[in-house]
Amino acid sequence: MSDDAVITVHDPLTGDVVGSVPVASESDVDAAFVRARAAQAAWAGHAARERARLLLRFHDVLLRRMDDVLDVIQSETGKARRDALTEVMAVASVAREYGLRGPRILKPQRRRGGIPILTSSRVHRVPYPVVGVISPWNYPFLLSIGDAIAALVAGSAVVIKPAELAPLSAVLARRLLVDAGMPPELVQLVQGSGEQVGGWLIERADYVCFTGSTRVGRIVAEAAGRRLVPCSLELGGKNPAIVTADADLDDVVEGLVAGAFANSGQSCISLERAYVERGIYEPLVAALSARTRGLTLATSDGWRTDVGSLVGTDHAGKVAEQVARAIADGAIAVAGGQPRPDLGPAVFEPTVLTNVPDATPLAREETFGPVIALYPVDTIDEAIARANDTEYGLNASIWAGSRRDARRIAAQVHAGSVCMNATPLAYAAPAAEMGGWGQSGLGRRHGRDGLLRFTKSQSRLGSFHSRGGFDAIIGAITSPKRPRLLNRAYALWRRTPLAR
């Protein structure tokens, strides 16, 4: 390892040391890729159903060891236990989804041949040998292993670089995969800074998965682009909600609390701004502020905590600074708005703001904390226009009096995922693709696209003739009678379903 350097991990709530991991040197990263490549060839040779069967075993191992996983997640993030549970259940859902449906998605697909009856074609999926995963600190278990298990079922090996602030969850995730029967060489961990160790990873990976800020995402994309290596990027968001005057007030309140304050707002899909028709605006401000003030804040690591600590004092300081600037610029904190050092060094109150001026940074920049701003609007068209007035496009939520209205509004919102009469559901639907528009990223995770991104397509074309039939094919192509022959062949082909 790198001169015996280590990363020391602290509990954000107490400041206690909870573990350490060694920092990788460039030679360590090299060795990790060598081991991964050596193991991948045999792994890709297994049938997809065999690889998928291992994911189902991992699913079962994970749920049996759930309490251990929750303890580790909480110890290095300070989040509420219910938020840690969200990570575990999301990973279990992805493992089950691809464990059951992955082989079908990866199955070779028959396509029409160039010449009906005489030729055939099939599209096969070939895995990228080694996928590099650079994961963030906000969901250290989910985002380190969630992409990795999709790559593994596709037939790839993975090298994971977890976030420096929260590396222990990835260590445990790998251990659970190995306990489920995964060959240990297929899943490699390299610890260290994103700039250095992450850079070494990008220089060696055949495909790169990155989750993090838009600023760093651009750097990752540029580095991958220099090598013509494909990448998927899930980046920042300034996610809006739209609330119509006839929406159910209680549902909206609970939805905004969950959408804005889950994981202490440290989520790429958190709701940070809500555009509310005036007919319901004042009642919503009153109800949401009262509900927010009643939340249990970072008092323990048990199930009774609603909102946990932020990940560290540096990040808590950034959230506090942005909120303080907004208030100085004229915003009103109708709930929260202050750090709570009496509860923990990185604790910040769940906050509801009104009267936020457009010029303050909080109005347009991602906060990544437990903060939501409410804005009154005169019409839904105004709400849609303001929701779309952003460089981001990751997630949005609509609350309306009818599903028809919600669907109509959702169709006009510029975001990769739009939840209707619900809090953000992107991670609760592993069969549906998720990803951003605009500056919120490239590529998709989950669903068919989230698995196939780890593969290259290979079209295999041939003749039905036992010896190839090349002369017959060339003759059909070059014959002066070709148009008439093709018309007859197409006519026969249309009448023969099995030939298509």
How are the SSEs placed, and which strands pair?
Blueprint: E1 6-10, E2 17-22, H1 26-45, H2 48-64, H3 66-77, H4 81-106, E3 109-111, E4 119-127, E5 130-134, H5 142-154, E6 157-161, H6 168-179, E7 187-189, H7 194-204, E8 207-211, H8 214-226, E9 231-234, E10 239-243, H9 249-261, E11 271-277, H10 278-293, H11 313-328, E12 332-335, E13 351-354, E14 371-377, H12 380-388, E15 395-399, H13 403-410, E16 417-420, E17 441-442, H14 447-452, E18 455-463, H15 470-478, H16 482-494
Helix pairs in contact: 1-7, 2-4, 2-5, 3-4, 3-6, 4-5, 9-10
Task: Summarize it.
The chain is an alpha/beta fold. About 45% of the residues lie in helices and about 20% in strands.
Task: Give a written overview of the molecule.
This protein is an alpha/beta fold and 500 residues long. The chain has 3 domains: 6-235 and 447-455, Aldehyde Dehydrogenase, Chain A, domain 1, CATH 3.40.605.10; 239-430, Aldehyde Dehydrogenase, Chain A, domain 2 (3-Layer(aba) Sandwich); 465-495, no CATH class. The protein has 16 helices and 18 strands. It has helices spanning 26-45, 48-64, 66-77, 81-106, 142-154, 168-179, 194-204, 214-226, 249-261, 278-293, 313-328, 380-388, 403-410, 447-452, 470-478, 482-494, and strands spanning 6-10, 17-22, 109-111, 119-127, 130-134, 157-161, 187-189, 207-211, 231-234, 239-243, 271-277, 332-335, 351-354, 371-377, 395-399, 417-420, 441-442, 455-463. It has a 7-stranded mixed beta sheet, with helices on both faces. Helix 9 (249-261) links the parallel strand 10 and strand 11. Helix 3 (66-77) packs across helix 4 and helix 4 runs parallel beside helix 5. The longest helix is centred in the N-terminal third of the chain and has 26 residues, at 81-106. The chain is globular. The mean pLDDT is 94.
